[in-house]
């Protein structure tokens, strides 16, 4: 499913109407019928409905809904609080209602409804909201009745995941053709409630220039009958320091659970006994260093590069001068897929060797959370959260790398300008070590030779589903990173069986 911004949606609309010749009223009819069905499914008890309509096409959709409800025996009233001087398709809908004898209410009612429908503003809205509309939005939110927003909660911008005030707090948002940015990224997505997309007949090709997708259609690679461990990937994970040995162990276990043939951890010699006694299936390679890796480890790692199909660096590594030289040296000298996480990223920022990313011939994957990304880019965390997808894309294209930007939603940006957004996962995953698990999952998939884009999409999805399963089995407060790792097998099964429920459903 593609994710659009307002201008892209209006250009897809225009293309559907002008190039493909689908009349705009047909689109509006399908939009309003889909809206009607979605409301019936979600709120079967709601028979007394108040529809609040604005003056644009969003209001037009809402007025067409009034007609469907009226003709199907609902007790439906409507308000035009911004004025009755409508144009185009909205006027056409209004005229039909008047001919049916359905006049708008002239005053704001005091109550008596099971449901409010918000059709004030859609993708044509540009913040800030004016005073008259502000009052209507505040009033809708004050009624204490479930609210369904048509297309987007009025007051939000389709392009932004920032919350504008005031904006409608919807329980259900029914959008058309494609979800928009505000539906998929927090905090705006919280204002949308459940999101349903209605297919209104706009062909996918009408948005062919858009390269933003929700991750959904992932494929688990086959494990051929004649494989042996040597071709299922031998991955090397480098990191670990005194007080932070767990991170690397979580990543290593995640690699094994994800399917790697062989997993090795490269760790400071002074700590290798800890890994030896805790890891069973995974091997450890003692590298120079007592409490953290010594710079001498660099050449030793580089000398082993032919043995490994992927390298991940940084989990529990520590942030220090020699660490910077190791990370920068690996960026320069390591051939093959290389993933940097945690202190691998911090040492990269501190070592100021980002330019090396551009020179690498093999794929580089960076997996920062917002704090690490802020260090990498110099942007504030607030600015990153407001421009999440655009900044992920800017970075991956500027530095020719793959960027997995992690927050409550995760964006995978590719050097050729695509963005894949994961809506999976749960707040239970906001715990130390969960990112280390993701680093392991991704390294494992890279190490078995998957196409990088497919590996990252599958890995992020799988990790999110594993988190959801752990949440389900335990409690949202109680899961730890290792619980998630132990749910990777079940996550694989659900993906393969097709039993993962959609985060945003599509109705036709
Ligand atoms: N073919 C199409 O174009 C389709 C459009 N559809 C609907 O059309 C909507 C877009 O319609 P429009 O482009 O007419 O725009 P909207 O109906 O979203 O909003 C436009 C209206 O809002 C007013 N407005 C904008 N910013 C404002 C602000 N800051 N304060 C106060 N008023 C403001 C404008 O003056 C105009 O009256 C979509 O959200 C969707 O609901 C659907 O019917 C599907 C088909
Ligand atoms: N509220 C949330 N909803 C969904 N996923 C989340 C949420 N909070 C955190 N996560 C996921 O958990 C992981 C946390 O990673 P990270 O911050 O790197 O943790 P650590 O470095 O401690 O391992 C990321 O994959 C992130 O997307
Ligand atoms: K709306």
From TrEMBL:
<keyword id="KW-0067">ATP-binding</keyword>
<keyword id="KW-0511">Multifunctional enzyme</keyword>
<dbReference type="InterPro" id="IPR000631">
    <property type="entry name" value="CARKD"/>
</dbReference>
<dbReference type="Pfam" id="PF01256">
    <property type="entry name" value="Carb_kinase"/>
</dbReference>
<keyword id="KW-0456">Lyase</keyword>
<dbReference type="GO" id="GO:0005524">
    <property type="term" value="F:ATP binding"/>
</dbReference>
<feature type="binding site">
    <location>
        <begin position="406"/>
        <end position="410"/>
    </location>
    <ligand>
        <name>AMP</name>
    </ligand>
</feature>
<protein>
    <recommendedName>
        <fullName>Bifunctional NAD(P)H-hydrate repair enzyme</fullName>
        <ecNumber>4.2.1.136</ecNumber>
        <ecNumber>5.1.99.6</ecNumber>
    </recommendedName>
</protein>
<feature type="binding site">
    <location>
        <position position="436"/>
    </location>
    <ligand>
        <name>(6S)-NADPHX</name>
    </ligand>
</feature>
<keyword id="KW-0547">Nucleotide-binding</keyword>
<dbReference type="InterPro" id="IPR029056">
    <property type="entry name" value="Ribokinase-like"/>
</dbReference>
<comment type="similarity">
    <text>In the C-terminal section; belongs to the NnrD/CARKD family.</text>
</comment>
<feature type="binding site">
    <location>
        <position position="369"/>
    </location>
    <ligand>
        <name>(6S)-NADPHX</name>
    </ligand>
</feature>
<feature type="domain" description="YjeF N-terminal">
    <location>
        <begin position="9"/>
        <end position="208"/>
    </location>
</feature>
<dbReference type="GO" id="GO:0046496">
    <property type="term" value="P:nicotinamide nucleotide metabolic process"/>
</dbReference>
<comment type="similarity">
    <text>Belongs to the NnrE/AIBP family.</text>
</comment>
<feature type="binding site">
    <location>
        <position position="435"/>
    </location>
    <ligand>
        <name>AMP</name>
    </ligand>
</feature>
<feature type="binding site">
    <location>
        <position position="151"/>
    </location>
    <ligand>
        <name>(6S)-NADPHX</name>
    </ligand>
</feature>
<keyword id="KW-0479">Metal-binding</keyword>
<dbReference type="GO" id="GO:0046872">
    <property type="term" value="F:metal ion binding"/>
</dbReference>
<feature type="binding site">
    <location>
        <position position="316"/>
    </location>
    <ligand>
        <name>(6S)-NADPHX</name>
    </ligand>
</feature>
<keyword id="KW-0520">NAD</keyword>
<keyword id="KW-0521">NADP</keyword>
<feature type="binding site">
    <location>
        <position position="58"/>
    </location>
    <ligand>
        <name>K(+)</name>
    </ligand>
</feature>
<dbReference type="GO" id="GO:0052855">
    <property type="term" value="F:ADP-dependent NAD(P)H-hydrate dehydratase activity"/>
</dbReference>
<feature type="domain" description="YjeF C-terminal">
    <location>
        <begin position="212"/>
        <end position="495"/>
    </location>
</feature>
<feature type="binding site">
    <location>
        <position position="154"/>
    </location>
    <ligand>
        <name>K(+)</name>
    </ligand>
</feature>
<feature type="binding site">
    <location>
        <begin position="57"/>
        <end position="61"/>
    </location>
    <ligand>
        <name>(6S)-NADPHX</name>
    </ligand>
</feature>
<dbReference type="InterPro" id="IPR030677">
    <property type="entry name" value="Nnr"/>
</dbReference>
<keyword id="KW-0630">Potassium</keyword>
<comment type="function">
    <text>Catalyzes the epimerization of the S- and R-forms of NAD(P)HX, a damaged form of NAD(P)H that is a result of enzymatic or heat-dependent hydration. This is a prerequisite for the S-specific NAD(P)H-hydrate dehydratase to allow the repair of both epimers of NAD(P)HX.</text>
</comment>
<dbReference type="InterPro" id="IPR004443">
    <property type="entry name" value="YjeF_N_dom"/>
</dbReference>
<dbReference type="Pfam" id="PF03853">
    <property type="entry name" value="YjeF_N"/>
</dbReference>
<feature type="binding site">
    <location>
        <begin position="122"/>
        <end position="128"/>
    </location>
    <ligand>
        <name>(6S)-NADPHX</name>
    </ligand>
</feature>
<feature type="binding site">
    <location>
        <position position="118"/>
    </location>
    <ligand>
        <name>K(+)</name>
    </ligand>
</feature>
<dbReference type="GO" id="GO:0110051">
    <property type="term" value="P:metabolite repair"/>
</dbReference>
<comment type="function">
    <text>Catalyzes the dehydration of the S-form of NAD(P)HX at the expense of ADP, which is converted to AMP. Together with NAD(P)HX epimerase, which catalyzes the epimerization of the S- and R-forms, the enzyme allows the repair of both epimers of NAD(P)HX, a damaged form of NAD(P)H that is a result of enzymatic or heat-dependent hydration.</text>
</comment>
<comment type="subunit">
    <text>Homotetramer.</text>
</comment>
<keyword id="KW-0413">Isomerase</keyword>
<feature type="binding site">
    <location>
        <position position="247"/>
    </location>
    <ligand>
        <name>(6S)-NADPHX</name>
    </ligand>
</feature>
<dbReference type="InterPro" id="IPR036652">
    <property type="entry name" value="YjeF_N_dom_sf"/>
</dbReference>
<dbReference type="GO" id="GO:0052856">
    <property type="term" value="F:NAD(P)HX epimerase activity"/>
</dbReference>
């Amino acid at each position: 499913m593609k994710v659009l911004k307002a201008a892209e949606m209006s250009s897809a609309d225009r293309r559907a109407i002008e190039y493909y010749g689908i009349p705009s009223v047909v689109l509006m009819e399908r939009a309003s019928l889909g809206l009607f069905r979605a409301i019936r499914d979600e709120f079967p008890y709601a028979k007394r409905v108040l529809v609040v309509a604005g003056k644009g096409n969003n209001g037009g959709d809402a007025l067409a809904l009034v007609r469907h409800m009226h003709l199907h025996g609902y007790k439906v009233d409507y308000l035009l609080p911004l004025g009755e001087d409508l144009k185009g398709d909205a006027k056409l809908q209004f005229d039909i209602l008047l001919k049916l004898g359905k006049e708008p209410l002239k005053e704001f009612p005091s109550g008596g409804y099971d449901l409010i429908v918000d059709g004030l503003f859609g993708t044509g809205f540009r913040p800030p909201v004016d005073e008259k509309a502000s009052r209507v939005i505040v009033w809708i939110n004050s009624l204490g009745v479930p609210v369904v927003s048509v297309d987007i909660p009025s007051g939000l911008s389709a392009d932004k995941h920032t919350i504008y005030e005031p904006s409608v707090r919807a329980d259900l948002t029914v959008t058309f053709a494609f979800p928009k940015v505000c539906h998929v990224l927090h905090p705006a997505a919280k204002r949308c409630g459940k999101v349903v997309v209605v297919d209104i007949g706009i062909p996918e090709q009408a948005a062919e220039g858009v390269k933003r997708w929700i991750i959904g259609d992932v494929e688990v690679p086959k494990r051929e009958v004649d494989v042996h461990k040597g071709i299922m990937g031998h991955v090397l994970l480098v990191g670990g320091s005194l007080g932070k040995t767990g991170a690397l162990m979580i990543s290593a276990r995640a690699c094994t659970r994800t399917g790697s043939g062989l997993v090795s951890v490269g760790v400071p010699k002074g700590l290798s006994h800890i890994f030896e006694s805790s890891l069973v299936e995974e091997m450890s390679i003692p590298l120079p260093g007592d409490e953290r890796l010594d710079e001498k480890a660099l050449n030793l790692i580089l000398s082993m590069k032919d043995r490994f199909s992927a390298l991940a660096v940084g989990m529990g590594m520590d942030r220090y001068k020699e660490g910077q030289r190791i990370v920068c040296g690996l960026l320069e000298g390591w051939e093959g897929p290389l993933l940097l996480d945690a202190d691998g990223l911090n040492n990269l920022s501190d070592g100021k060797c980002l330019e090396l990313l551009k020179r690498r011939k093999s794929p580089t994957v960076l997996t920062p959370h917002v704090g690490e990304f802020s260090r990498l880019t110099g942007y504030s965390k607030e600015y990153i959260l407001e421009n999440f997808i655009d900044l992920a894309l800017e970075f991956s294209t500027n530095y020719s790398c793959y960027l997995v930007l992690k927050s409550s939603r995760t964006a995978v940006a590719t050097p050729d300008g695509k963005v894949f957004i994961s809506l999976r996962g749960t707040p239970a995953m906001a715990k130390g070590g969960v990112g280390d698990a993701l680093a392991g999952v991704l390294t494992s998939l890279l190490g078995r030779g998957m196409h990088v884009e497919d590996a990252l999409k599958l890995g992020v999805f799988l990790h999110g589903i594993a988190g959801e399963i752990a949440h389900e089995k335990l409690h949202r407060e109680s899961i730890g990173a290792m619980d998630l790792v132990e749910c990777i097998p079940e996550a694989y099964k659900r993906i393969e069986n097709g039993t993962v429920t959609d985060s945003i459903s599509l109705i036709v």
